[in-house]
Prior knowledge:
Elements (H helix, E strand, L loop, with lengths): L1 H38 L16 H5 L3 H12 L2 E6 L2 E6 L2 H10 L4 E3 L3 H7 L9 H15 L1 H4 L3 H15 L3 E3 H18 L3 H19 L10 H26 L6 H6 L7 H32 L1 H20 L8 H4 L3 H14 L7 E3 L3 E3 L2 E3 L4 E4 L1 H5 L38 H18 E5 L6 E3 L3 E3 L4 E6 L2
Parallel strand pairs: 2-8
Antiparallel strand pairs: 1-2, 3-5, 4-12, 5-8, 6-7, 9-12, 10-11
Keywords: Heme, Iron, Membrane, Metal-binding, Monooxygenase, Oxidoreductase, Transmembrane, Transmembrane helix
GO cellular component, one term: membrane
Pathway: Plant hormone degradation; abscisic acid degradation
Amino acid sequence: MDTPMFSVAAASPFWVFASLLSLFLLLFTLARVLISGRRSLPLPPGTMGWPYIGETFQLYSQNPNVFFASKVKRYGKIFKTHVLGCPCVMISSPEAAKFILVTKSHLFKPTFPASKERMLGRQAIFFHQGPYHMKLRKIVMRAVMPEAIKNIVSDVETIAVSCLQSWDGQLINTFQEMKTYTYNVGLHSIFGKEGALYREELKRCYYILERGYNSMPINLPGTLFNKAMKARKELSQIVAKILHSRRQSKEERNDLLGSFMDEKEGLTDEQIADNVIGVIFAARDTTASVLTWIVKYLGENPSVLQTVTEEQESIMKSKENGGEDKSLTWADTRKMPISSRVIQETLRVASILSFTFREAVEDVEYGGYLIPKGWKVLPLFRNIHHSPDNFPDPEKFDPSRFEVAPKPNTFMPFGNGAHSCPGNELAKLEILVLLHHLTTKYRWSMVGPHNGIQYGPFALPQNGLPIRLFSKS
Ligand code: HEM
């Protein structure tokens, strides 16, 4: 009896070890088969151009959309190329965009050149995945979701009215002036009424930062990049000063800075500063570009301008006939379906963010092709928005097409998934408020050629769309 007992006890650890070993070997072999299976998948069709330079020149020597369109025509909705020193896979089908940005977003991390990360601040929301990113998103959403921005409609209106009055009778560069508007609204949503106090100080630094942002990343005294890095430091110091004075006053605020400062969130001052600077960056030029395109499309489409004006005039009249307070309210902005469709159609046609970047964190199979680990992946929003499969007669500016909801994943002006734009409601609000006053009180004419597009980096009408603006009265 002893012997079997002894042998079972002695054999047990051996068998456990042996079983574990064989399980490990089996898994290892399976993984190898899987990996080699993936590795043996073909890369998407396409050409990689010259060593290192790749096809960068072909992309940037012309309107980038010509490059994308010719590739899609030749290779289909997924193709490979090599730009700015990186192998890339570009995709232009709604299903592939959903796969990368939503369903398999954990396999594709956001990616930016190191110089841009340094300039905006490494702790900014754009560069992160996982719990830290989710926390930042929650904080930003809390301050810019409809429930929160309902309370700032009349402040946004004051800013819009004051900007428009300052343009009256002037020849203006639409984009530059819209930037002033969106910057002032952005500061208000971040710092509340305090924003106006720091406007000029922050603006001076921000403009230097902006000039260096697209420059060569050479950090030597006198270069644009070097000046921008210094301005960046100054911006952090200004935010630190604001943080200090808020902590002294102990007053609780429900603006974005207040949300970042919530002690429960446990963010450091550096994390707060990087994200404040990041939000100004994300909010200003994007919204200003869209507003510039709206001014252009309305100017070119008198019948659309007429219907928008009528919609806005009826809101204005209903307020004149109403009680005391003539300021626009959140409820008024919900009664602007025609203007809202003009915004949607502008976002589609102009597609100011033609694409976004991700990087594959491991080998990924999509549609029978291999997307190798480390390759950049670019969902091409503009191609999706301009495909006749998704939008008939896609080059035509026709807001009425949005009377019917677009097919899923075909309309992504604010991105999609974990990194989609948290500020989209704020952007739409500020556009509607400006449109209300622009169409009811002013008329404008475009000056000089306005059919060209420039990219800097957002798509923009040529020369920022110079216009002459007059008060209707
Ligand atoms: C019409 C104007 C705007 C457009 C077209 C736009 C577009 C976008 C897009 C496409 C993305 C996603 C990029 C990606 O997936 O790689 C994004 C992200 C972002 N946007 Fe906007 N945006 C606009 C206005 C704003 C405003 C007003 C704010 C202010 C709160 C804002 C804050 C952000 C932030 C913080 C992110 C990063 C989100 C994250 O990484 O989780 N944007 N935006």
